[in-house]
Amino acid sequence: MEHILIVEDDLAFNKMLETFLRKKGYHVSACSNSEDAIKKLSASTFQVILADVRLPEKEGTVLLEMVRDKKLPTKVILMTGYAEVSKAVEVIKNGAFDYISKPINPEQMLNLIQKAILALKEDSIVKKNSKSPEKPIEESAVEKEASNGYVAGVSEAANKLGDYIKLVAPTDMSVLIIGESGTGKEYVAKRIHEKSKRKGNVFIAVDCGAIPKEIASSEFFGHVKGSFTGAINNKIGHFEAANHGTLFLDEIGNLSYDLQMQLLRALQERKVKPVGSNNEIEVDIRVITATNEDLGKAVELGDFRQDLFHRLNEFSIQVPPLRQRTEDLLLFANYFLDKANEQLGKESLGFSDEALVVLKNYDWPGNLRELQNSVKRSVLLSETREIEKKDLPENIVNHTSKASSYKLFKNQNEEQLILDALEEAGGNKSKAARILDVDRKTLYNKLKHYNIEL
Ligand SMILES: Nc1ncnc2c1ncn2[C@@H]1O[C@H](COP(=O)(O)OP(=O)(O)OP(=O)(O)O)[C@@H](O)[C@H]1O
Q1: Distance from the CA of 4 to the center of ligand 1, in angstroms?
Q2: In the record, which positions carry 4-aspartylphosphate (predicted)?
Q3: Is residue 192 part of a domain?
Q4: Is pLDDT of 139 > 50?
Q5: Among the listed ranges 72-81, 107-116, 141-150, 152-161, which one has the minimum average pLDDT value?
């Protein structure tokens, strides 16, 4: 969880900011002068400092100097009054990430914070790249956030997925995308298309599970008028429609054996023959397929042709389930919140602390689709500017996987789990230790290890 330091001497505004950012899922510390801020900066790592330009004792710019001189991995955003904008511009020249004028628009501020965090990540990537110059240049930070409605995520699993997409996209290889339902396989396919040299041409998505067996050949390869009862006009099939572009075949495991053979032939010969026609049409397409079943097993059982499987599986990509990319949960939840606001004409600002705990403790078997639907429903039901626990779907609220999620205590989510437990315990360490099922001493050691301050 990203750690933000607020330095603001207007205590009411300070508190309001703190509450708002907590609800957005950040770990927040606050103080009212630069002396205290310097102490906090020496003791903990903060990804973003949100400081008033004018602070008692010393100006907010001393924080900027400290970050710069100590080369801290921190971005500084300065808050200014209208009259101080010229000063803010001057401090940007001295290394501040950006400034924001009061009165502050919360959404604008949130955007700026997200941008700062992404820029920080980009800095560390650039650093890594400069150590190994052969490594290809990473995609820009903004792309990592959301481009064309695609949220890439920031988790380890998301980075790996992004690396594979980047690697295979410029080639013409057939890609098999594997993942549970709702993990975003079609989004990944589209992303590959958008990053390929075919991006100026069409992307056609076909759900193989939804095509009746009797008309499947005609759907894929087209037909000529009169070729069968009901063929009252010529029809262009998906292959021809996708010419020069990308054909995405979802639920590929649902194709009949007969159609699998026709598909293989079309892919090998790069030609299709519409039903009832003697003419073959040349097609130049890239095929991306997706499945949520074990296609290898289907091959073993003789339900799926081995030759077609190899033809489609020149490169495979596994899309992780949401429960394995918990660091991305809030990013997606906030993205879906904004999307729902837009679609429903609502103005929800974020999630209450309680609602956040519920979201984090749920397993999300329906993955991103389930998260999106749950957030949208909650936005619709919410009567306040904040999504509360009661607005969330009942099955999610009643799900009690907390115990099992805390069992993960020794894995990479450890820091997050500690923060969640502390949040749930209202900052009471003994209570948090009990929730985590560890003794107080272990918890103290862990707090020190992760630089978590209370
Ligand atoms: N990277 C992403 N960025 C933003 N939204 C996403 C992303 N991935 C998925 N979604 C959202 O989640 C929903 C489900 O994604 P998608 O249809 O790609 O999943 P799928 O794995 O193909 O599902 P199925 O197996 O049921 O076909 C999409 O409608 C989209 O709104």
Answers
A1: 30
A2: 52
A3: yes
A4: no
A5: 141-150
Looking up tokens 């990944």, which residue turns up? 188
Pocket lining: 292 vs ligand 1, CB cutoff 6 Å: yes
Mutate to test the pocket of ligand 1, among 206, 369, 374, 376 (most ligand atoms within 8 A of CB): 369
Residue 409, pLDDT above cutoff 80: no
242 versus 211: the higher-pLDDT residue is 242
| 61 Cβ neighbours under 8 A, 6+ residues apart | 53, 78, 91, 94
Read off the pLDDT of residues 284-309 as tens digits, 9 standing for 90 and up. Answer: 999 999 999 889 899 999 999 999 99
E strands, 196-278, are 203-207, 246-250, 271-272
> Are 300 and 174 members of one domain?
yes
Range of the domain at 353: 323-399
150 belongs to a structural domain? no
Residue 161 alpha carbon to ligand 1 centre in Å:
14
CATH code where residue 439 lies: 1.10.10
Q: Is residue 103 included in any domain, yes or no?
A: yes
Give just the sign of the alpha carbon dihedral 295, 298, 300, 302: negative
